[in-house]
């Protein structure tokens, strides 16, 4: 009988539990057994392994976080041998790894050493290559958009600028999608360098046309060479620059780890559920060494070396977003 | 200078305003003018036409409903001539119609008479052919899933069955997606006939395995020949049958028109925004007689005769959903 | 060392877990021990008792339902002796009961037999006497108001009536508060008999003044003698009558058990937390035989015979609500 | 015929529109007329006055912000005469002012000069004296609690501290109530000075007892003498200190103006509606020079000199909150 061991690795994201539930229930329908590894790869290295039944995953679909816990341990070659031993000891057919881009690099290493592994893309950052969407992204975008909705309803009487700092160290997916969905008046992402004058002039133009209220969204990893002091974060620095340049009251919102939390959206629940089914299907067919991906509306299996590369935010969409400024 | 006239027709759906905003802002960036027709085709027949500027659509992105109003009037051949005259009088280049499946049939008629029209698929029912998703569907599914989440948190101490009736007269998209996303224990849709025993036995099996609480989702258009008295709705009739057959307390929730309301989800805002851009792009290229569609993750233009056909719910997914019962 | 045993009885309500957490944490700060009884009074009769530590209640604050489970068993005199024996066996100083109005009658019986018991008013119905508010009421009202908000955003183009049936078998608190908070156009509660003409004429007047859309909220326990066939619920029957009388399309929403679910509102979390503290404070002072109440913004202890009486909905407020129709 | 003129002044808060709607509808039922002043006192000084009918306020109940706009202009003695003239010109019987604590000082000045004014306490800060609650407070607390809920669901695997900065320049109401409702592990408010060691040791103790994850809530106006560099806000400075002292990864969330936005909660809708009714009732009785207050569950009228004083956060509750750390 085939036996799948699930682990979540890297930063957590909403939808992890929905994916775990899907793998467990799909596996039992196909007469496979399922184990759960607690605390990511570290748990595997320290034998923290439990049995997951259909009932263990009852009620977890709408919950944020992950019932298995996670850790950031990236594995090295020395650890591959230990992982193989643990897998043998527990008679694990395939390791089902749910994680972020860095986790896919670990999966790539395991695959190179013939350790049987399959993975699901789980990250709010949406920066995993080879898939159009990652589990958790839509929920995080929703958190950003709801914050912008709230900012929009507050008084517009004054000439005031709101700067909102989102997550996204390497890529601007969250800022871009959250900004568009929340009706931002300017979006700053790591992929595109913007001159200070462009932002300031845009705020001026809005004020002149009677809209004294502007919302600027910036990804935490945005690199603007003209920001002098980013010790308190780029959002804070940008707010200071705008206030100095325009004389308008400028306030900051730093969304922080809220973006990793909350109940997954319908979109993320469905994506996690479908991807979990696809993973079990691959196990059934004896396939390993692949990540489940969604490309052009279809589920596919892609290689880990591809998945581990950074997928940059869509610049064409970034340019289109300017239509709404 | 090109001039677009927007109208919303048929039952409304969340995301209509996001789409209107997108068309208006995209059009002004391309130096086109935009008019708004109030009250659907009826408004066009009675000259209820206003000017829409970039500022008219400020702040409408997160709002449910439609600022233009709607009506269910399906047009006939006699009205086509009047519509043409109104369009000439207002020098309208293209009519941009946002509406449901029946509306696409009206657009088909207009196209057959060479009236220049483009459309966006706007309906919570997701039953328009030629597109993977319609604007409003994700929000309605979210409303259903949130209702199921609430039902799940209430006491499971008793052997109790909850029947939830969703919208969906001809197709089961809402019940199917809402049911999966909300973790339903049984889903009944118009596309699939289910024996009473199958439902009852499933509820028994769950009770025997210690889960005395079951949630059954049924689309309002489901046709179960063994339901005797559906005067109070199929949900009510199904609840009665289950209670009689199992002796378990069975309660009903009828979601009703709530499913048409609420602020659009991120998914619907982005879909509406992207589709609005695509429509204006088609106007720029001089294309008419098409509906904007999303197929395999790509935006396309499809013919109205195709769009006006019913798209039935995905039976393969329905069968997969049983894995989670 | 004093030892408190907590149990939840009757229909559950949001905030139960917040109250349990509060009792546990407050008790440990005062060097008391806490047990949890699973499944209400039935659990006490069958020795289903666990130990609750500060850590057992970690993370339960925002969760709906109750981690202890509940049952509807109303106790009789024969059971009182068994309860006393179980309490002796587990060396329980005080039984802390969280429950609805009927549960307060059971607490009254226990008190008459000198079984030491304290209670918190936990019910979405808000019908417990002696307290201004019960835990769970605000959350249920919020669920109703959000449903009405969604109905309000959907198309108002047609002359259409929406009937919304809320819980409330004996009293109209939920319908009244939910209706006011959600901007209902007419509210029907068990405490007040309304003529059919009054409702129908009001809907007519609204239509004549240009508001063709009306929302009527009715409590499930409302008794309108002119409703002919209430087999499918009073909401359904009322919708039918209105449609027949006005010729306007009339649709029904039955909120059902959703109203018992969901994460408690801030108001309910604070009320549950404060009341839990007060209960432990009473234990410390050696007081028993009382329910914690909130009266005029102050926490008090009231007798069970008072609490077990029905508190009818505020008729003065009902009359004031007419101002907003 | 009596004529009321409504204006909103100071920072806006959710529930303003619910209050405006209540005043308008209550007034028309009592045969009074209602005007709306746009942009606060500034609008009164510049004749920006509109007529409000029952229909003008249709649909505004659930909306954040204020349909009348606001401004921060505090009035001086020179302006009182102009205000009186405008009121005479428009034949205004009473000025109905919705605003924050500073606004009550302006109302006090007007009252001293015999200008007829009545007011409602509208501020998220809850710092207006003489009333237990202000309109907008519950909604802002809800925003804080929801952010904390999201933080709680994200991974607890690492030893990590989350610092959340709330509004509250002079008082700690928001931090205190939001912190309790959201299950914070430490709360810092302007009213209480805390030693660094107390916070750090508490975080250590939690880590030792297996809870490596701590959430610290701090009001933006908290004054901790041991915070070295608060240029980027006290939240950022506190996070830095905790990280330096504990070596634990510490992240910051700055909620910012989100706290002023969003749809009002049921609690705020009901409070605003009831207070609006009370204000109109006072007009009917010919009373002026008072603010509507809620004290001990009862509506009262209090003097402006009292209301303009700061109401500090409840220290007893602050101490009780420690039970839950």
UniProtKB/TrEMBL annotation, chains A, B, C, D:
Subcellular compartments: Cytoplasm
Keywords in alphabetical order: Cytoplasm, Glycolysis, Kinase, Magnesium, Metal-binding, Transferase
Family under the similarity heading: Belongs to the phosphofructokinase type A (PFKA) family.
Class in the EC hierarchy, top level: transferase
Annotated source species: Coprothermobacter proteolyticus (strain ATCC 35245 / DSM 5265 / OCM 4 / BT)
InterPro entries assigned to the protein according to its UniProt record, in alphabetical order: ATP_PFK, ATP_PFK_prok-type, Phosphofructokinase_CS, Phosphofructokinase_dom, PKF_sf
Family matches, as Gene3D superfamilies: 3.40.50.450, Phosphofructokinase domain
Main location: cytoplasm
GO biological process: canonical glycolysis; fructose 1,6-bisphosphate metabolic process; fructose 6-phosphate metabolic process
Pfam families with a match to the protein in the record: PFK (PF00365)
Record EC number: 2.7.1.11
Domain Phosphofructokinase: 3-282
Cofactor: Mg(2+)
Molecular function terms, GO-annotated: 6-phosphofructokinase activity; AMP binding; ATP binding; fructose-6-phosphate binding; identical protein binding; metal ion binding; monosaccharide binding
Highest taxon listed in the record's lineage: Bacteria
Pathway involvement of the protein, from the record: Carbohydrate degradation; glycolysis; D-glyceraldehyde 3-phosphate and glycerone phosphate from D-glucose: step 3/4
The keyword Nuclease belongs to this UniProt entry's keyword annotation: no
GO CC terms, sorted: 6-phosphofructokinase complex
Name of the protein described by the UniProt record: 6-phosphofructokinase
């Amino acid at each position: 009988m085939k036996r799948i061991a699930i682990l979540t690795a890297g930063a957590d994201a909403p939808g992890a539990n929905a994916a775990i539930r899907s793998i467990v229930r799909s596996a039992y329908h196909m007469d496979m057994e399922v184990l759960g590894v607690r605390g990511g790869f570290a748990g595997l290295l320290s034998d923290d392994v439990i049995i997951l039944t259909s009932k263990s995953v009852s009620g977890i679909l709408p919950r944020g976080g992950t019932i298995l816990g996670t850790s950031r341990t990236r594995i090295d070659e020395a650890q591959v041998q230990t992982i193989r031993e643990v897998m043998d000891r527990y008679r694990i057919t395939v390791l089902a790894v749910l994680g972020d881009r860095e986790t896919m690099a670990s999966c790539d290493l395991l695959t190179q050493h013939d350790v049987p592994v399959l993975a699901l893309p789980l990250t709010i950052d949406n920066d995993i290559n080879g898939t159009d969407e990652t589990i958790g992204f839509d929920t995080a975008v929703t958190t950003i958009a709801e914050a912008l909705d709230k900012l929009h309803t507050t008084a517009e009487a004054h000439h005031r600028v709101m700067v909102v700092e989102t997550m996204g160290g390497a890529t601007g997916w969250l800022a871009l999608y959250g900004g568009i969905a929340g009706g931002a008046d300017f979006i700053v992402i790591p992929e595109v360098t913007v001159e200070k004058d462009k932002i300031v002039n845009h705020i001026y133009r809005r004020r002149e046309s009677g809209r004294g209220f502007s919302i600027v969204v910036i990804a935490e990893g945005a690199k603007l060479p003209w920001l002098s002091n980013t010790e308190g974060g780029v959002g804070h620095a940008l707010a200071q620059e705008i206030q100095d340049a325009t004389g308008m009251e400028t306030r900051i919102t730093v969304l922080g780890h809220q973006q990793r939390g909350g109940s997954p959206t319908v979109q993320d629940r469905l994506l996690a559920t479908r991807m979990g089914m696809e993973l079990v299907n691959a196990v059934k067919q004896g396939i390993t060494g692949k990540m489940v991906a969604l490309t052009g509306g279809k589920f596919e299996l892609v290689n880990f070396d591809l998945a581990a590369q950074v997928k940059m935010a869509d610049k064409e969409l970034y340019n289109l977003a300017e239509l709404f400024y």
